[in-house]
Task: structure prediction
Amino acid sequence: MLSRTAEYLYWISRYMERAETNARLLDVGYRMSLFPNPNGYNNEWESVLAAAGAIQGYKNKYNIIEQKKVEDYLFFDEDNPSSVFNCILNARSNALVVRTSFTPESWLAINKTYQEILKLKNNNFNASDLPNLTEWTIEQVNLFRGSLSSLLRNDGYNFLYLGLFVERADNSARLLDVKYFVLLPKPQYIGGNIDNMQWSILLRSLSSFRAFRWAYDGDVTSTKIADFLVLNSDCPRSLSFCIQNIVKHLTNLTCSPEKVNKIYNTLKDLNIKIQEEKIESIVDFGLHEFVTQFINKISSVDSDIQKEFFN
Result:
């Protein structure tokens, strides 16, 4: 019974986190679309689709990449399994099965979000509505997370947060990769005004701009922002912070120490490396390449969790 309940809890938090990330990706695309897109840069909406891992599904449905179509595909489209709508629908479906495993407030937060997105889906929207939709999604997911604070710190709680940080680790890495997809690797653009502007947009979309200014003095530079989002363990969306919390909630599980140790072996090298790495060496290696390796490792950890606990 534990494995089934644990699986539902694991995926509830993953779906809610994914809904928020898609909203943040759309916000990045929207903000970047407001600025000039000079020659040598990729279309920001294609970049958003690529970072969301949804570009192939989109192209199977549409012949051309357009802002309105991308917004609808990532937010409301039922053919996209990772759309905000489908993520909330799936979270609610899982929560309905195990609603006695968390607080009534948690169930109400998910159910209310589902009821509201049904109404939003039935209303036609235009490009100017997108900031309101993304802000609404972020607010609803934060309400759900807040409702989890009164849960018992048992294995169910740890599976909820394990799912949350596995999803956030993957998603934070993909959000970082938006910068790679948007800005072609041409040296004359790196460090320029548009480059730094795009990094600032990414920070604002992650609700981290003010936190970054508190943590780092002086000018806003791409190296400082990359350090903040990759290695700064005080930033709640950094790769380092996510890895530390995956390790924390994994090792707090009491249901099977043998399985925990087996999964941790997959994660151990990455955990050690990201605590000791320097941003200069990551930049020299290639931020995109580093992020790609990170995403692959998190995918392996996720596969191990599902194989060991849920199959």
Remarks:
- The mean pLDDT is 86.
- Residues 2-33 form the longest helix (32 residues).
- Residues 231 and 240 are 5 Å apart (CA to CA).
- The chain has one domain: 2-310.
